[in-house]
TrEMBL record:
GO molecular function: 3-hydroxybutyrate dehydrogenase activity
Keywords: Oxidoreductase
SUPFAM superfamilies: NAD(P)-binding Rossmann-fold domains
Gene Ontology BP annotations: monocarboxylic acid metabolic process
Official protein name in the record: 3-hydroxybutyrate dehydrogenase
Matching SMART domains: PKS_KR (SM00822)
Family of this protein: Belongs to the short-chain dehydrogenases/reductases (SDR) family.
Length: 256
């Protein structure tokens, strides 16, 4: 059980981050939810999670495209035994037309935020004598697709950060791993569908089956509960010697 542990999950008021927060709370952890905007009454969301699982759940607003905000999030959390770097966005555009501000934002949010939160959380983990860092990369951290240059670059970078932090903590009771999901049906994926329809000139059903799930041999999207369950596993005693690696939850994507 994760009773008494505090988990900070970035970008956790929707999608995969919320799924991870729920599974960690179910396993007994106290949870810190985060998003950038404060939209959708996240304080109430935290209260509901706390009532459902009987653990302490707080919400801290922070725009993690800002370096100092990342570090302040960990400071405000006060404790961070489990750090899940999940916040991330996508933008689909050919490289020569890719907007510079979008490139900079995606590198900042999808990659640099994990550097800043890790740097702030590691001293706390060392003091506590235990820590788990879980970076939510992607099948796009191991393979590429056209029109996703910033996202693929950031997600590959996150795998490199994972390996480096694992080596720096190798002799300590701290592990650092990345989860590489294939397609998981969330708002981020939903938002890609119109762009993909436009880029490929296809209707919704065709673009989902032939483009999005083309490389996912199971032909099914993973669920946020499954990504949460994988996170809980990486926090378990069974995973103590798992560090510096990636776990794919991708229906066979990276086997192709
Ligand atoms: P989502 O859009 O549902 O959630 C993204 C989260 O990030 C939200 O909670 C949002 O509040 C937060 N966020 C966005 N901008 C932020 C900012 N500036 N500061 C702080 N938080 C911010 O997306 P999702 O599909 O749940 O994706 C979560 C992570 O999983 C992302 O890193 C994504 O790249 C990764 N991923 C998703 C899939 C998939 O198929 N959905 C596959 C592989 C990897």
């Amino acid at each position: 059980s994760l009773n008494g542990k505090t988990a900070v999950i970035t970008g956790s008021t929707s999608g995969i981050g919320l799924g991870i927060a729920r599974e960690l709370a179910r396993a007994g952890a106290n949870v810190v939810l985060n998003s950038s905007s404060g939209k959708g009454d996240p304080q109430a969301q935290a209260g509901e999670l706390s009532d459902e699982f009987g653990t302490e759940v707080r919400y801290i607003q922070a725009d993690l495209s800002d370096a100092q905000a990342c570090r302040d999030l960990i400071t405000k959390a006060g404790a961070c035994d489990i750090l899940v770097n999940n916040a991330g966005i996508q933008h689909v555009c050919p490289v020569e037309e890719f907007p510079i501000d979008k490139w900079n934002l995606i590198i900042a949010l999808n990659l640099s935020s994990a550097f800043h939160t890790t740097a702030a959380a590691l001293p706390m983990m060392r003091d506590a004598g235990w820590g788990r860092i879980i970076n939510i990369s992607s099948a796009h951290g191991l393979t590429a697709s056209p029109f996703k240059s910033a996202y693929v670059s950031a997600k590959h970078g996150m795998v490199g950060l994972t390996k480096t932090v694992a080596l720096e903590t190798a002799e300590e009771p701290i592990t650092c791993n990345a989860i590489c999901p294939g397609y998981v049906l969330t708002p981020l994926v939903e938002a890609q569908i119109p762009d993909q329809m436009k880029a490929h000139g296809m209707d919704r059903e065709t673009v989902i089956r032939e483009v999005m799930l083309e490389r996912q041999p199971s032909k099914q999207m993973a669920t946020v509960e499954q990504i949460g369950g994988t996170t809980v596993f990486l926090c378990s005693d069974a995973a103590e010697q798992i560090t510096g690696t990636t776990i794919s939850v991708d229906g066979g994507w990276t086997a192709l």
